[in-house]
Amino acid sequence: MAKINSKISLLNNYATSEKNVDFRKLQPLNEDELYAWWHIVPGSRHFINAVAEAADKNCATAAHLPKVDTAGFLQILEKKIRRRHVSLLVEIFDFDGKGDLEDFTAELTEKFAPNFLRDFTEDSPLTDLSRQNVLSGRVVIVRLKNKFSHLTSAVADFNKKNSDSSGAIIFVTNEDNPPPSLTRLSDFLTPYDVQFFAINLLENAKLTAQEKLYTSTLAAKLSGQSAILAKNLSTAELFTGGVDFVKKIVPTCDERNFSRAVWECQVQFLLPTLEQVRGRLIEKNFRRLKAILPVKDEFGKIITDPWDMEFRHLHFYGGNAMLFQTGDWEILESAHRARNELSHLEILDTAKVEKIFALAD
């Protein structure tokens, strides 16, 4: 039985990291899933709408999201802008991130405005580009291949003298540790958004409703901000296969971090279920329990009400008095053991999780 490390940081994804995943081996989102992620899931929908506003305002902006989801994002972003502004040209421009603002502007204008004449009275070429309305009627989506150290300045400079005729530039980056001034998916997305997406992916899985909720929560913890990871993890195999299944997707999965995520999900879902079991056992055996009270437990607590009896009290005092019927005693033993194991940072195997969920029915 696995035991977790209680000192593991909870700030990052538990078992997965983009650096450890070969996304070429994963199934991409299909059209329905892309639509759901970018149009229905609240966090990602608000993010893409915020990015698309650059076209509405004829300004520059910079968007940050996981690299693996960029292709789908660009596909949906283009469609969204074209629906809003049928007369605009939407262009994709790849930039390797090397060089300064003059280098970037030179490459951009070589493709879209070869007759552009730089006015050096403007300190920044991006301010000049905007003031001269060089990109009028266009939205240029700049896909950055590497970190562009002048990204923040590029956005700010373009927006210094933009007008209704300036056109728009949308930078899309996947760099590590992006500056807070960027429009970042991480600022919009919550674990509940990813769980909402995951549970919809589990709609046809052969799991009970409780097992689907549990599995979708675990998938959300492991996926971070990545829709593609969420898709590939949100299957019945995550519930039944555990870390062995995750390692098919993330071979370098940190088992300690994975165990932490599993334990948190088990605590979140199983402890309320176990409390229901405790309540039912007390309600069913209330008179017999009342008859053996009051008692003083090992910590000196005097118990006079059956509803104040924890599993350990029910097991010890009820067991000594032999007041439970065989079926109830078996339920009490299973629930008491599971409660103790979770309290001692131990992880329950799939069979025990299934059994506890079944007790709630």
Summarize the structure in short.
By secondary structure, this protein is α/β, with parallel strands linked by helices. The chain has helices at residues 31-40, 42-57, 70-84, 101-112, 125-131, 151-158, 191-201, 209-223, 227-233, 236-249, 255-284, 286-291, 311-320, 326-343, 350-359; strands at 60-64, 89-95, 138-144, 168-173, 183-184, 295-296, 302-303. Strands 2-3-4-1-5 form a 5-stranded parallel beta sheet, with helices on both faces. A two-stranded antiparallel ribbon has the order 6-7.
Structure report:
- With 361 residues, this protein is α/β, with parallel strands linked by helices.
- The chain is built from 15 helices and seven strands.
- The protein has helices at residues 31-40, 42-57, 70-84, 101-112, 125-131, 151-158, 191-201, 209-223, 227-233, 236-249, 255-284, 286-291, 311-320, 326-343, 350-359, and strands at 60-64, 89-95, 138-144, 168-173, 183-184, 295-296, 302-303.
- The strands form two sheets. The protein has a five-stranded parallel beta sheet with strand order 2-3-4-1-5, sandwiched between helices. Strands 6-7 form a two-stranded antiparallel ribbon.
- Strand 3 (138-144), helix 6 (151-158) and strand 4 (168-173) form a beta-alpha-beta unit.
- The chain is elongated, with a radius of gyration of 28 Å.
